[in-house]
Structures are given as structure tokens and as C-alpha cells.
Design goal:
67% of the residues lie in helices and 3% in strands. The chain is mainly α. Helix 1 runs antiparallel to helix 2 and helix 3 packs parallel to helix 5. The radius of gyration is 17 Å and the shape is globular.
């Protein structure tokens, strides 16, 4: 696995042109920025897979690089940034780097505290935060985050979908551990 490393104008497929401008999440984006964000999304998914396999060093690098790109495009207080910060916090937690994990966690929580509407990016961040809270033993916060994620997924699609299984399973484990 090799995360995208170069996003310079002029790389294959871009050829120095900016292409049409599109609106994404209320922000204007040209073709070059669209490619960068798509590469970030793919790299982040691959980093999640590698992280689940127990490798922490490479995902940390990817999350840090993706964080820089997302902050350039979205700004430092966007839910997409919170999602990446949550993934970075989880990775650092696995690496026993508590202070750094807590810092990334605090930034993600700060961003999400101001969000009024749960969308896909917010739900993604909340799912990662829920896992981190559960691993840290903060079951009350884990429960609240899992419930928010499940509520969003129920509204957004088929409540019997396979995607619901992971948060439902983890919420069930939290309920079991808390005697609910």
C-alpha cells in the first residue's frame, strides 16, 4: 500500500489545468483539489484497514498528511477534519501516546461540539470517538456517540443494513458492560 504522495499540478490526469469549479459542502473546489480530496479519502480508508490489522506507524503518517490537506480545504473546524482527528487520536491511543491522543481527541470534540446537524462526516467522527471512549473505559460517552451514529444511519438509509451491524454490536457490548 502506497498512499498518494504528490498532488502537484501537472501530474498525470491534471496537466496543469484547473478544470471546472464544483461546490462541495458549500465550498468551491476545482478539479485539482477534488483529486487531492479523493486521494485523501482513499488513503484514509486504506489507513483504517491497516490500523485494524495492527500496524500503527503508517496510518499515523497518513492521518497527519490527510489532516493537513483537509485543513487547507475545509478550514480547521470542519467535521471532515474532526473525523481525521478522531482517527489520529485512536491511532495514537493504540500506540500508547496518551498526551498526543488526548490532544487530537480534544480538537475533534471541540469541532463536533459546535455541530448542529449530524451528517455523514459527523457520524463517521462520532463512530471513531465512540470506539476510543469504549477502549478508554468511558462507557457513558461511548453509549451516547454510538446512539447518535445509529440514529443518523436509521434516518439516512435502511435500518436493517449491514452497515448498522458494527455500531449496534458495539452499543450492545456497552449496554452489556453497563448492565442495561
Amino acid at each position: 500500500w502506497h498512499p498518494a504522495k504528490s498532488h502537484a499540478v501537472g501530474e498525470p490526469g491534471i496537466r496543469g489545468t484547473r478544470g471546472p469549479v464544483r461546490a462541495v459542502a458549500g465550498l468551491k473546489m476545482d478539479a485539482h483539489m477534488g483529486k487531492i480530496l479523493l486521494d485523501c479519502e482513499v488513503d484514509e480508508i486504506l489507513a483504517d484497514i491497516v490500523l485494524a490489522g495492527g500496524d500503527f506507524a503508517e496510518p499515523e503518517k497518513v492521518y497527519r498528511r490527510v489532516l493537513i490537506e483537509k485543513e487547507k480545504f475545509y478550514g480547521s473546524d470542519h467535521p471532515e477534519v474532526a473525523r481525521t482527528l478522531a482517527s489520529l487520536a485512536l491511532t495514537l491511543f493504540y500506540m500508547n501516546r496518551k498526551a498526543e491522543s488526548d490532544e487530537a481527541l480534544g480538537r475533534a470534540e471541540g469541532i463536533l461540539a459546535s455541530v448542529q446537524v449530524v451528517d455523514d462526516a459527523v457520524a463517521g467522527a462520532k463512530a471513531v470517538l465512540a470506539k476510543l471512549y469504549r477502549l478508554k473505559g468511558d462507557l457513558i460517552r461511548a453509549e451516547a456517540e454510538y446512539e447518535d451514529v445509529i440514529e443518523f444511519m436509521e434516518r439516512a438509509g435502511d435500518p436493517a443494513s449491514e452497515a448498522m451491524m458494527d455500531p449496534l454490536l458495539h452499543l450492545g457490548a456497552v449496554y452489556f458492560r453497563t448492565g442495561k
